[in-house]
Amino acid sequence: MKLFGISIVSGAVAAGLLLAAPADEKKAEAKAEAKAEGKAKDPVCGMEIDAKSAAAKTSYKGTTYYFCSKDEKSQFDKSPEKYVAKK
Fold first, then answer.
1. What are the pLDDT digits (tens) for 58-79?
2. Which of 9, 23, 48, 54 meets the CB 3.0–4.6 Å disulfide criterion with 66?
3. Domain count across the chain
4. Is pTM, for the whole model, over 0.85?
């Protein structure tokens, strides 16, 4: 009986029917976020900036936003929905 169960699981893995474990999903998300951190668009002025050298950054609803100046981050922080809706 155990051998039969293993065959089913092995078949499911081979067919790609088993979902990735949550730890694997988190690793994939972290990798995608790291890749995306090369360039970013300032949500206030629309300028494309290098995320690594951004003047400021903030997190809103699980997304990190980068800014070319601290003043623009301040504007965003006062009314983030105004700028997130522009996306």
1. 999 999 999 999 999 999 999 9
2. 54
3. 2
4. no
